[in-house]
User: What shape does this take?
Amino acid sequence: MNIILECLVVCPETASRARLKDALSLTKIRTSVTQARDLRRATEIASKQPELAVVFMHSTLSEESIRKFQEDVAQMKLRYRPIFVVTLHTDHLLSEYISEHMLNGIEGFLSEPFATTDVDDVIQVAFLNRQKQVEAEDRNLSALKFMMHEGLTLIDNAAIERVKRAGRGGGFSRRRMNRLKLRLRSLGEKVGVELLLPLIEESVAQQIKNLDITLFHRTVQRAAYADHPGKVLTEIIEARALSPERLCELVSGDAKELLALLDEKGELTPKLSRELARVIGNTPNYWLSLQTSYDNYVRTNPSARNG
Assistant: This one.
């Protein structure tokens, strides 16, 4: 695993910072070192180092300020949690500082003069810690990628189902989607935004690439076959031995309109429907329904227009 560990050395003494930087340059694992004289400046630097792995804090810094700095770092949007190490001044006893800081999240101590082997041991611990963090992040990303694919598939299937069922959800499981959303949110909080956004873009692009867009085209259900209302009217008057001419005499209005209807070239208008209801029987709505059924049949069966 090719990792360069970012280190932050916080110490008021210039000479002590220089000695630790020199020792860090000799470690087996590559390091990148940033220095700060005080914790205020260290806070500014840490906020701009999302890959920060180790913070070395000098024992001349107060316990309260160290604890405050750790709390500030915990609130930062760092990619990983760094480890904290106290570097001991030559006049300070290790036993005193171990009892003082052991329960405060301090994970190591170094005494001056800094021995290369001791510094290397700390960096090795930081490396193993970072290795575990990266592996956990990879597992979370893999799980996120799988669940994003599952979520996008659920959404697409729901959309296809709605298209097929004229706007109704059909068998789409809302509860399943809600559970998945909670799991995605939980994992997303463990992965940085800088990794999450490219993953979303990749998942969506892959889904689009493999998606058959034609599945989203609304399928128009074909209406049942319906005769032209003129044909229905012709059969009725023939059954009653009523000629078209006689029907024209009985029906008030434009005779040409009625004859066009009987020739299956015209439409049954509301006015004509009322006249047919008066002369032949049934209601105006019945006669209008014949026209509506025929129109629906022709609209959903393109071949009928040419028939």
